[in-house]
Amino acid sequence: MSRPAQPWLVRATHWANVVLLAVMAGSGLRILVAYPFLGPRGDEYGWYPLQGAPPPSALTLGGWLAGARHWHFAFAWIFVANAVVYVAYLFASGEWRRRLFFPRRDARNAWGTVLHDLRLRKEAPQPIGLYNGMQRLTYTAVLAMAPLVVLSGLALYKPVQLPRLTAILGGYDVARAIHLAVLVALALFTVVHVIQVLLHPRTLADMTVGRDERPEEVS
Amino acid sequence: MSGSTRRGFLARGLRGAGLLALGGGLACDSSRPHAGFLGVMERANEGFQRALFDPDRLAPELGEDEETDLEDFPKYKISREFPVAPAGWALAVKGLVARPLTLSIADLKRLPRTRTRVRHHCVEGWSAVASWDGVRLAEIARLAGVDPRARYVGSGPSTPATRLRGTRRARSMRRRSSPTG
User: Fold this and answer.
1) What is the CATH code of the structural domain delimited by A8-217?
2) In this predicted complex, what is the ipTM?
3) What is the value of pTM for the model shown?
């Protein structure tokens, strides 16, 4: 049975996400410009290295605080809707089996991939189906960030009306740090992801025009 | 191209796309956030907030030890001292109300006072704890008989005494050292 490496719904939600995350990151950074500190007033966090350093305006979207908030709160819902479509498809189609990380199947393979990438091991472990173990671990971790960024965002949006959520996250200011930490993690992922795609251009074709999965090409 | 440059490029592209769509009714124009697509989503968010909001769920009262030092608050004030209302100053309550009111300082002082110490979450992203003291806005709304259709409260000067706007608020921030409110 041949099925596309990346079914059209995965491709559509993936590229929608590129645009949506760019809007969310840009408008979020513009909101951060208004108060580029982490931690409550008078008790700012010592561990945050960028206290008082506003993000460069080239990375921001929305022009001013109110504009950026409107962009952020408008596109947040579309981001959530896109994620819901993706997750519903993931489970309805059975795609989750070949995409998500399962320790029993993927852990050894992931570790072998790390050793190979660090030049500590000569031969690369064979991918198990669509991905190798390290890809599954990374993509699953990125997917897990989505609920974290949405929940911390909701706590920032209405901390008084959502007191339990805010408390679970450690309070308003911790939620704000989590919200920014997820952005940093996603940005780092994006850098590595783009480098990996440039090293393996075949995957770009899979994610754009869409091609059948051909295990024999994977070597 | 690094991730950050790419993001900047995308942001510029999106800004351009927003401008191109101007007049199309679905524009995203940062300088007109109530119009176009941003306006549509603003109204959707208002619906979500109305569903979420429980008027009885208030910010929790905090202890005195949690109060943020006054020096750590941003300085948006027009003076270090509390402004003093000029003679004849009055608070006019009008709009979607059954009984438009004009409340003098003496009237306001006769109303039930409330005192609360809560964490304030600013739209800018900071949070800080302050004590507030004065007449509840809800009390003034009750007296004026606010129409249930009213959705916003605005405040502003209607007399030339604009420098003293701070005193118009039903609640005012207390100085920690000041024993009276």
Assistant:
1) 1.20.950.20
2) 0.83
3) 0.82
